[in-house]
Structures are given as C-alpha cells and as structure tokens.
C-alpha cells in the first residue's frame, strides 16, 4: 500500500515537476504583478483574444490586474475556467426609507462569455429585519428572465452576538444563485416597517462571495456590518473600518462561433482546442483542457506539452530505469549478469507476482477512484438540484416529512435492479417510468427523465415541491425523490390499472360503465378543486387530460404529472406565463392571452367530461377534416339539440341518458370560450355530487349549472399561521429552482 501512495503522490506532483510550459503568446507578458495571465487573456495589444482583454495598472506597486471597468483580478485558472476577482460590497445606511435598490457588477459587459459562477458563489445579506432579493439587471435585455434569482431574509432578536460565526437567518442570511449573469440588481426591503431606528443597527450590507472563503470568514463579515464593540451611532468611525470588497469567482468559456479559431471539431475525437494533445467540452460554450499526461495552455498552438514523469521529485520506477514517452512513461528492468536457469526462474516469478499484484492493485485503485468520482458527482448533482433547500423544506413541516423523503441513488438502483429494462412500466418523449420494490416491500413507480436539459430538471423540482405539500386521496402520492443524478428521479405510489385514456380510447376488454365514469369525473373534480382552493397554496395543474388521470384496481382516480403546474399565492387570481399544455385540452383564452387562471383547468376538465360522454378522442378525424376538435364539435351538438347523436350508446343502454344530459350541460359551461363564464371546480364538484346522488331533477340541475357559470364566486379556504410561514419557504424554493414557462 505505501508503494501505491508513492505513485499517487508522484502523479499529483507531475505538473510542478516539468519545465516551464507556454502560458502566453510568444513575446507577450505572462503576468501582471503577482497574477499569471494565460492566453486567451492578455493586457497588451495582440496578446489577447477578442472578449478576454484585461488592463495592467502599473501605477500601483505591485501592479494590479483589472477586468472590465476596473474590478481587480486575483487569479485566473485554466484548469477549471475561472477568474477570481475582488467585487464590491453594497453598503446601505438605514435612515427613514424602508426599501433600497442598487446594482452589483463584476465589471463585465451585459453580453459575453464571462459570468458569475453559480457553483462557487453565494448571495449574502447582513443586517437586521431585512429581506434581500437578487434580480436580473435592467440592462440584461431578456424579458423572459425570472423576476427573482435568489432571496433570503435576516432577522434579529436584540443586538447580534459579536461571537456568532453562523449565517443562517439571524443577523445574516445566504442563498445559492440560480442563474449566472455578469451583472445583477440588488433589492433590500425592511421587514419591520419601522423607520424609527433607536434600537436597530444602522447598516445593511449585501454581496456575492466565494462560498469557501465566506465559510472561513463569516464572523469577520458579520462584525464588519454590526461594528463589534462600538456605539450604533458612531457612523464615521464605523464607515472607516468597513471592508469594501470580497473575493468572487467568475467562470468563462469560448463561444463556438466567435472563437472558431481556438476550438475545432475533429470527427474522430470530437471537440478539441487549437493545441494538439487537447480536448474540449462543449455545452453551449467550449472549455479546453490538455489531455492526460500533458500540461500547458490548450489555447496556444503546441501549448500542451508532455509531462516528463522521469524528472519527478519521487522517482516513479523503484526497481528499474524510467523511460519517458509521449503522454506517459515506462520502467525498464536493470540488466544484471545471471545464469540462464536463474534468469528464467526470476522472470517467471517476477512476471507472475508482478501481474498478480498489478491486476489487484490496478483493480483496487480503479475501484476506489471510481467510487470517489461517483460520490463527488452525486454530491454535485444534489447541490445543483437544490437538495439542501428541499431538505430544509421537508424538515420544516412534520406533515411533509412524514409523507416525503429524499432517497439515495443506491436505494433506487436496488429497487429497480439497476433500472433493468424488464422493470419499465411505460414512458414517452420526456422520460421512462420503472416499477420498483423498496426495502420496506412497498411497490412504487420511479420516473426518470430522458432529456437532460434545465427545463426538464426545473419541471421535476416543481413537481416535488407541489406534491410534497398536497395530501388528497385522488392526487397521486409522492413518496420522495432522488437528487443525486443529473436529472432528479421521482418516486410515486404504484398505480396498477393504467390511465383513463386507455380505458376510454384503448383496447380495454372491459369498457367503463356510466356509473364508474361519473364517479371518476367526480373524484377528479374533487382533486382539482382541492388544488385550486384547499391546499396550502393554490396550484394550477396546466395539463389536465385523460392520460394524466390514473386508475387503481378499484377504478379510483388519481391526478398525476405536475411537471407543468404553477403554484401561486392564495390572494392571486392568475399569472402571465409561457403557454404550455396539450393540444385538444388547451384553454383558448390562455392560449391567446398567456394568462393562466384556475378557469384554464376548468376548460381542460370540460374536455374530459366530453370524452367520458362520447368516448371520442380530444382531436379526431371527421368527414370534413382530419383534425377536428372534440370541444367545438361537442358544444355545437349541444347547442343544436343533437346531443343524442354523439352520446355513447353504452350510457343509453345503462339508463344514464338523463344524468348524461346534465353532465353534458356542465361540460358545455366548462368549455365556454370566456373564462369568466365557466364555473369554478368547486361548483363543478357540487353539480356532479348532485347527479351521482340523484338529489335534484333534470331541470334544476341544468339551472344550477347555468347559474354557477354566470355567478362565479371564487372559493377560498382558511389558512393558519403555520401554513403562512411555510408558504414563504415553499415559494422561495420554487423561485430558486424554476425558470418561466
């Protein structure tokens, strides 16, 4: 084992052991002061690539390297494509104003390939009684950007303790940054709403800082704001002692179109940089690295040079002579005078033991390295998928903690036999669903996305947030999720009888009876009404359709697939968002105005009622057209008193024609082109209950439908103080993880 450690230490020192390698272009300075300046960066004309020009301020001693409009650079790394800078701290002196706004900048242009690293930095606010928002800068030019990128709140109970070195919401708060930009807007608001500041700190600060540096300096940054041991109103002395800048990490990449002279595509090996013995990673932009066994600057012609392992401080060949080779080395056995039988014996024994130990050692080292890489990768995905914030959301409410848990990837691989092909239940363009058996013998359905794009990840996170706070017998239960993969995995209760669409339009051997269809419609209406008005926050599903209504063995309905759903505050009636839904079920008013309301789900439910009555698909082929909408076709037949022409004959045979006519009138009201003329889901639920229980006659039921459609009174449930507190945390999670849809 010691010999293995020696080899590993030798490999780690390889970069430092070789002769100097190219850093900058020939004839160009390699450093400004103590900061190395590798190409494509540079500060002299002809020494930098477009978009990577810097300034070397020689008026300071030592010289200072500056980025953009004067931000000081501490270091530039080719290994992880980062630039470490000194960014400003935003200081606000509290007076009588209750709201402050400012801007944070890394000294960069609004467009470019250098932005704030979301992986390495956190957004921090220090002060008492404030909520801090990080928002897109007004000049970013992207109207589709989210309103808030990050937010956190800091409270105080008396004067903050100078010895406190934490930042968890008491006098100091921190949060991740969801989107890397060159500039941001910063908004600070007073939570106490009290201009009189006799007992309050006079200063608020906000900044974007390197996460690792901040962990080591939390106490210093708190005292920098709270002025440890000084009077609150000694403003002049306080201001003179303040730290004005902190380290911030930027990340950079090459633009595949602009920087075509630095990165090329090799049909055999893929992307690589201009230097031989290099490779590139292209994902939106390109990042270049030297191949294994080489080091240097891959952005310069012949910039990646061989590492001479034989010149390492720790000699790699203990019992032989080291021979350097391009990208590697080999050990040659020293020649000795030995008899032929002895030579054969020595070779055989040495080869045998060498092969045995080499195979054992290589296998062990490879396995250890694979395990270490896999663990780091899982930790990286867990943080990227907002695992820490989801843990906080679950632990903050006992009800959610009892229903939802975070699974490890190992647990789900064991439950699905490593996602065996035979465990696949179904899937579509967005992902695959596997059948799994957990360690407690529960049978579950595990949803795994195919497409690795940020939108799919955000939809998965959105579904976790919504389902973790819902508890209804007709909403599919979410047992938990796994965030250790590039795209999160969702774990649901196993629904064995398929989707409603299969039973209505598929090859089901047992068609649904009218009684079952009516009960399924009522259960679905109850679930949607619960989402709209009875959950802790209002949820608009946005993709209500038969394929998203699952049926158990007893034909109990379960509403599923909340990836496209949006949650809003209970006092809001709608939200502007990009149009999303399924053709045939999409609300025309939402399609043309982009305003999503609860009535959009009502329209989609009206299409489901029409399917239950007719067993016709939402879009079908007719004599006059290949793509006829069931909604318009159904409404025209109702208004022309030709409902019997499209009513499913099975309903008539079962004696349900009278009840079906009431349901048809209800569907007509739901399919009104104007949302204000549609009933609420609570009113729809009431009518369906009356029909199922046969409480009123036909005429009064139809009258109820028409009256509910025209006198729409939104239903609002009561909310307790605990739910109000939890809602703010849930909203923070949603805003930190989703992009506008």
UniProtKB/TrEMBL annotation:
Residues 1-20 form the signal peptide. SMART domains: EGF_CA, S_TKc. InterPro entries: EGF-like_Ca-bd_dom, EGF_Ca-bd_CS, Kinase-like_dom_sf, Prot_kinase_dom, Protein_kinase_ATP_BS, Ser/Thr_kinase_AS, WAK-like, WAK_GUB. The chain crosses the membrane at residues 340-363. GO terms for molecular function: ATP binding; calcium ion binding; polysaccharide binding; protein serine/threonine kinase activity. Keywords: ATP-binding, Disulfide bond, Glycoprotein, Kinase, Membrane, Nucleotide-binding, Serine/threonine-protein kinase, Signal, Transferase, Transmembrane, Transmembrane helix. Pfam families: GUB_WAK_bind, Pkinase. GO terms for cellular component: membrane. ATP binds at residue 448. One of its GO terms (biological process) is cell surface receptor signaling pathway. The keyword ATP-binding applies. Residues 419-688 form the Protein kinase domain. PROSITE patterns: EGF_CA (PS01187), PROTEIN_KINASE_ATP (PS00107), PROTEIN_KINASE_DOM (PS50011), PROTEIN_KINASE_ST (PS00108). Its main location: membrane. It is a single-pass type I membrane protein. It is found in: Membrane. The keyword Ribosomal protein does not apply. This is Protein kinase domain-containing protein. It comes from Triticum aestivum.
């Amino acid at each position: 084992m010691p010999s293995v450690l020696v080899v590993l230490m030798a490999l780690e020192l390889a970069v430092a052991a070789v002769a100097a390698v190219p850093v900058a272009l020939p004839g160009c300075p390699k450093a400004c002061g103590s900061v190395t300046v590798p190409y494509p960066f540079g500060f002299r004309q002809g020494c930098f690539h477009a978009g990577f020009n810097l300034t070397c301020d020689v008026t300071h001693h030592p010289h200072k390297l500056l980025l953009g409009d004067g931000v000081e650079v501490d270091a530039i790394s080719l290994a992880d494509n980062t630039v470490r800078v000194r960014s400003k701290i935003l200081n606000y002196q509290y007076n009588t104003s209750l709201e402050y706004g400012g801007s944070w900048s890394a000294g960069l242009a609004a467009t470019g390939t250098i932005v704030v690293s979301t992986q390495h930095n956190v957004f921090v606010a220090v002060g008492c009684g404030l909520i801090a928002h990080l928002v897109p800068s007004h000049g970013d030019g992207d109207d589709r950007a989210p309103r808030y990128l990050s937010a956190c709140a800091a409270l105080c109970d008396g004067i903050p303790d100078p010895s406190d070195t934490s930042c968890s919401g008491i006098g100091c708060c921190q949060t991740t940054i969801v989107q890397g930009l060159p500039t941001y807007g910063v908004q600070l608001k007073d939570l106490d709403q009290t201009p009189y500041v006799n007992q309050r700190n006079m200063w608020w600060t906000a900044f974007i800082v390197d996460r690792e540096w901040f962990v080591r300096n939390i106490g210093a940054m708190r005292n920098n704001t709270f002025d440890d041991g000084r009077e609150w109103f000694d403003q002049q002395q306080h201001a003179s002692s303040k730290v004005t800048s902190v380290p911030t990490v930027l990340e950079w990449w090459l633009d595949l179109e602009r920087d075509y002279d630095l990165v090329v595509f090799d049909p055999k090996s893929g992307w690589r940089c201009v230097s031989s013995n290099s490779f590139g990673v292209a994902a939106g932009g390109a990042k270049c690295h030297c191949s294994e066994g080489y080091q240097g600057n891959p952005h310069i012609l012949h910039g990646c040079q061989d590492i001479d392992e034989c010149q390492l401080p720790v000699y790699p060949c203990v019992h032989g002579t080291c021979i350097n080779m391009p990208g590697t080395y080999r050990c040659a056995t020293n020649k000795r005078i030995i008899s032929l039988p002895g030579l054969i014996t020595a070779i055989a024994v040495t080869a045998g033991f060498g092969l045995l130990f080499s195979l054992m050692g290589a296998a062990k080292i490879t396995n250890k390295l694979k395990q270490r890489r896999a663990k780091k990768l899982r930790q990286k995905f867990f943080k990227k998928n907002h695992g820490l914030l989801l843990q906080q959301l679950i632990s903050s409410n006992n009800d959610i903690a009892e229903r939802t848990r975070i699974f490890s990837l190992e647990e789900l691989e064991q439950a699905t036999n490593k996602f065996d092909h035979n465990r696949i239940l179904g899937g579509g363009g967005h992902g695959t669903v596997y059948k799994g058996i957990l360690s407690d013998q529960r049978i579950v359905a595990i949803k795994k996305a195919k497409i690795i794009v940020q939108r799919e990840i955000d939809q998965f996170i959105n579904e976790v947030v919504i389902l973790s706070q819902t508890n209804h017998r007709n909403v599919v239960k979410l047992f938990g999720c796994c965030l250790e993969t590039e795209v999160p995995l969702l774990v649901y209760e196993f629904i064995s009888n398929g989707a409603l669409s299969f039973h209505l339009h598929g090859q089901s051997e047992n068609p649904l009876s009218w009684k079952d269809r009516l009960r399924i419609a009522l259960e679905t209406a109850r679930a949607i009404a619960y989402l709209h008005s009875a959950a802790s926050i209002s949820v608009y599903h946005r993709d209500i359709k038969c394929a998203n209504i699952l049926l158990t063995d007893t034909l109990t309905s379960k509403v599923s697939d909340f990836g496209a759903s949006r949650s809003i505050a209970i006092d809001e009636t709608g939200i502007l968002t990009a149009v999303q839904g399924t053709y045939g079920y999409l609300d025309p008013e939402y399609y043309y105005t982009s305003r999503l309301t609860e009535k959009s789900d009502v329209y989609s439910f009206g299409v489901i009622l029409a399917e239950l009555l007719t067993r016709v698909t939402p879009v079908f082929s007719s004599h006059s057209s290949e793509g006829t909408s069931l909604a318009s076709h159904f409404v025209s037949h109702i208004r022309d008193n030709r409902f019997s022409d499209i009513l499913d004959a099975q309903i008539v045979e079962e004696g349900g024609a009278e009840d079906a006519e009431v349901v048809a009138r209800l569907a007509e009201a739901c399919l009104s082109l104007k949302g204000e003329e549609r009933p609420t889901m609570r009113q729809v639920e009431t009518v369906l209950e009356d029909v199922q229980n046969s409480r009123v006659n036909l005429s009064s039921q139809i009258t109820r439908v028409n009256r509910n459609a025209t006198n729409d009174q939104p239903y609002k449930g009561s909310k307790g103080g605990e739910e109000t507190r939890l809602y703010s945390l849930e909203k923070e999670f949603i805003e930190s993880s989703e992009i506008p849809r």
